[in-house]
């Protein structure tokens, strides 16, 4: 679905943030992009949705270079939840906010209503439909931005730190949405500093900020202590505990 081929990028004339970056995320898969602050995760997200162009290499969507697509074609296929989603909100009513994208697709009024209702239900916001987005809690605002994206029914979801600052209930709701979208065949790219969240939700990891960008299965990535050190990433708590419990008992045996 989404393929990154030998991608290189530098902001202005700075040294390249990354080069020779190869990765892919297929239908029904979640890719977590991890790495220290400043490693280039959010920059990569902007390359994936066509806001930035690579110095060399390609981002391919269904095999087609994304920079050959028109803005409305990208918007229909790729939904982006940015780090500060409240900056994405502008309508006075939550339902209008969520309807904005589908209206640009020139769907029938019935289809727009259907999509808005479904997206609001999926994000637990039906009872908030007539509220002003800025009157909502931070979690509800983030889910409003998510609902706006889901209502477009894009094939690719790019989520920049979607779990940041959410409590347990909203985190579980978010994980439910990610898992449902994945099961429906969406390709999901998740930028994430929370390795527990990444390990629970992603099948593969793209690590930035090390000697070379590298994509591995989630299991292989978190098993590679050298790579975790190199990219300043912590092993998820579940795997730390698992290793501890598997340590053989080194206590001297008492004999006689
Ligand atoms: N528009 C820009 N112009 C110049 N440099 C930029 C621009 N945007 C980001 N940078 C720089 O590029 C580097 C990567 O930034 P980016 O935000 O992509 O990293 P990140 O991995 O997402 O960081 P964090 O985890 O802190 O969000 C940083 O050094 C940043 O200062």
Automatic annotation (TrEMBL):
Keywords assigned: ATP-binding, Hydrolase, Nucleotide-binding, Transport
PROSITE patterns hit by this protein: ABC_TRANSPORTER_2
Entry-linked SUPFAM superfamilies: P-loop containing nucleoside triphosphate hydrolases
Superkingdom assignment: Bacteria
Domain ABC transporter: 2-235
GO molecular function: ATP binding; hydrolase activity
Record EC number: 3.6.3.-
InterPro entries (UniProt xref): AAA+_ATPase, ABC_transporter-like_ATP-bd, ABC_transpr_CbiO/EcfA_su, ECF_ABC_transporter_ATP-bd, P-loop_NTPase
UniProt name for this protein: Energy-coupling factor transport system ATP-binding protein
């Amino acid at each position: 679905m989404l393929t990154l081929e030998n991608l290189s990028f530098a902001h202005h004339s700075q040294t390249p943030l990354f080069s020779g970056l190869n990765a892919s995320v297929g239908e029904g898969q979640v890719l977590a992009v991890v790495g220290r602050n400043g490693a280039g995760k959010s920059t990569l997200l902007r390359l994936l949705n066509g806001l930035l162009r690579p110095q060399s290499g390609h981002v391919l969507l269904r095999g087609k270079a994304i920079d050959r697509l028109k803005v409305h074609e990208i918007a229909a296929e790729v939904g982006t939840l940015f780090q500060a989603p409240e900056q994405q909100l502008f309508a006075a009513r939550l339902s209008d906010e969520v309807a904005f994208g589908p209206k640009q697709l020139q769907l029938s009024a019935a289809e727009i209503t259907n999509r808005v209702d479904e997206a609001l239900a999926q994000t637990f916001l039906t009872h908030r439909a007539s509220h002003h987005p800025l009157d909502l809690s931070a979690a509800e605002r983030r889910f409003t931005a998510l609902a706006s994206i889901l209502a477009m029914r894009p094939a690719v979801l790019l989520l920049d730190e979607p779990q940041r600052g959410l409590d347990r209930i909203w985190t579980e709701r978010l994980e439910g949405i990610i898992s449902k979208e994945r099961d429906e065949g969406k390709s999901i790219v998740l930028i994430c500093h929370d390795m527990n969240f990444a390990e629970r939700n992603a099948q593969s990891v793209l690590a930035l900020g090390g000697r070379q960008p590298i994509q591995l299965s989630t299991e292989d990535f978190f098993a590679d202590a050298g790579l975790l050190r190199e990219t300043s990433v912590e092993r998820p708590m579940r795997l730390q505990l698992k290793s501890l419990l598997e340590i053989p008992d080194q206590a001297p045996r008492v004999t006689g």
